Amino acid sequence: MNHLRPEFEQALARRRFIQAAASGTVVLALGGVYVLSDELTREAQAQTRGDGRPRLPPGQRVIQALRPMGGEPGDPSPGAYRLRVYGEVEAPFELGFAELLALAQSEQALDVHCVTTWSVLGAKWKGVRVADLAEKAKLKKSARFVIFEAAHGYTSNLALRDALKPTVMVAHQLNGAPLPRAHGAPVRAVAPDFYFWKSAKWLTGIRFSNHDEPGYWETRGYNNHADPWREERYA
Amino acid sequence: MPDGAAEAPPAAPARARRKPSLRPWLRALHRDVGYFAVGLTIVYATSGLAVNHLKDWDPNFKQINRTHQLALPLASDDRALAKAALQALAVHEEPREVYRASDSQLDLVFDKRTFHIDSKSGVVHEEGQAARPLLRIANWLHLNRGKKAWTYIADFYAIFLLFLAISGLFMIPGKKGLLGRGAIVALLGAAVPIAYVVLSGGP
C-alpha cells in the first residue's frame, strides 16, 4: 500500500479543511441571505392593505429592488418621445416628454408584483395618472378597455375600470430618479394591482377600445386578467 | 463412385439471408438529423437556461449603474455644461441628444447609456444597458420575438426533435427490444412531467 509523504498528507489535510470551511461559509451566507429576505416576506405577509387584501399576494416573495425582466428596448430618448392617446375618445392627442411633465403629476409609493414571484413594496413612482389622460382625451361611452402600446409592438390590456384606478399611471421617475432604461425609459405604464407584465415598458400609446384585445403575453399563455391575489398567472 | 466421369464438386453452402431491417436507415437518419439540429439545440438549450432564471438576472443585458460628482460651480448653458461633464467623465463619444428634462436635470443620451446630470448639485447618475452579444440573439430567437419565418423554422425544429426522440427508441435493438431497460428508462422520463402535474395540482 502506498503511503504519501507526511508533508503531502499535511497539505491534503489542510486543503480538505479549507474546502470544508469555505463550503460551510457559503452555505451559512446563503442561508443568511435567505433568512433575511424571508424576513421581508414575513413582515409583508402580516400586513393588510386598505382594501382588506393581504399586502403580499400568495406565492410572492419580497425583494428590495425591481429586477430588469428583459424585453426589446425602445428608444430611451426623451427628446424623441411621443405618447399617443387615442381610440374611443372625442379628443385624441399626442404628447412629447416635456408636455407629459407639464401635466398634473402624481407621486405614489406602490407595490408591484412580478409573475415570476418577486414583489417590490413601496417603489416610488412619479408620473401622470391614466385617469387624467383619459379625462383630457374625453372618453366616449363606448370605451371599455385600455390597450397599452409599447416599443416593437408590445401590448398589454386592462379593463377600463381597472385602468382608471388612481394608482394606474404612466411613470417617468422611479425612486426619485429618472426611469432607468432597463425599466422602460423614458416612460412606462404602472398598473400595480396586476402582474407587472401589464405595466408596459417603453410606452408609446394608450388606446381606448370598445373590445378586449389580449396583448403580447396574454396571447402567449399568460392570464388575461392577471390578478396577483387570485394567482391569475397563466391562462 | 468412379464411373469414368468426373465427380461433381460439392455444393456451396447456402448463404445465410439477412433479415431486411430499417434500423441501419433509422440510425443514419437519426445521426444526420442530429447533426442538423445541433446548432439549434445549442441555441434553444442555452437560451432556455438563461431565460428560465429571468427573475435572478437579465439574460439579455448587463446593467450600467454608476454615480459621479462634477466639480462645482457648473456652467449655466446646457451645451457648455454637457461639454464640461463629458470632459470630466472622460467620455469621448458625442451624445445623441442633450435634453433639458427639468430646471435641475440635464440628460445626455448615448446609444447604450444616459447621463442624468443634476445641474444644481453636480451629481451625475449614469445608467444604461449593454447587450450580452450571443445570448441576446439566442434569447431573441428562442422567444420568437422576430416572428415571421422563424415560426416555421421553429416548427421544423420541433418536428426534428420529435423524430430524434422517437427514432432513438428503435435505433439499437437490445436483448429485449423496447421491453427491457429501454422501457424502464422511457417510463421514468415520462413519469417526471406526470408526477409534477399530479403533485403540483396542474394548471
Tell me what you see in this structure:
- Chain A has helices spanning 6-45, 97-102, 130-137, 160-163, and strands at 61-63, 82-87, 93-96, 106-113, 118-129, 145-150, 155-159, 169-174, 177-178, 188-190, 203-209.
- In chain A, strands 1, 4, 5, 8, 9 and 10 form a six-stranded mixed β-sheet that branches. In chain A, strands 3-2-11-6-7 form a five-stranded mixed β-sheet.
- The relative contact order of chain A is 0.15.
- Chain A is built from four helices and eleven strands, in the order αβββαββαββαββββ.
- The mean pLDDT of chain A is 90.
- Chain A folds into two domains: 1-46; 61-230, Sulfite Oxidase, Chain A, domain 2 (Alpha-Beta Complex).
- Chain A is elongated.
- With 235 residues, chain A is of the alpha+beta class.
- Chain B has 203 residues and is of the alpha+beta class.
- Chain B has three domains: 21-60 and 132-172, no CATH class; 63-129, no CATH class; 175-203, no CATH class.
- Chain B has five helices and five strands.
- Chain B has helices at residues 23-52, 78-88, 133-142, 150-170, 181-200, and strands at 61-69, 97-102, 105-109, 113-118, 123-131.
- A five-stranded antiparallel β-sheet of chain B has the order 1-5-4-3-2, with helices on one face.
- In chain B, α1 crosses α3 and α1 (23-52) crosses α4 (150-170).
- The longest helix of chain B has 30 residues, at 23-52.
- In chain B, 12% of the residues are buried.
- The mean pLDDT of chain B is 88.
- The interface between A and B is medium-sized, with 26 and 29 residues.
Major beta sheet summary of chain B: 5 strands, antiparallel
Going by helix content, strand content and strand pairing, the class of chain A is alpha+beta
Total number of β-strand segments of chain A?
Answer: 11
Oligomeric state, counting identical vs distinct chains: heterodimer
Please tell me what the overall shape of chain A is: elongated
Structural class of chain B: alpha+beta
Which class of the largest domain in chain A in CATH terms?
A: Alpha Beta
**Helix-strand topology string of chain A:** HEEEHEEHEEHEEEE
Strand content of chain B: 15-25%
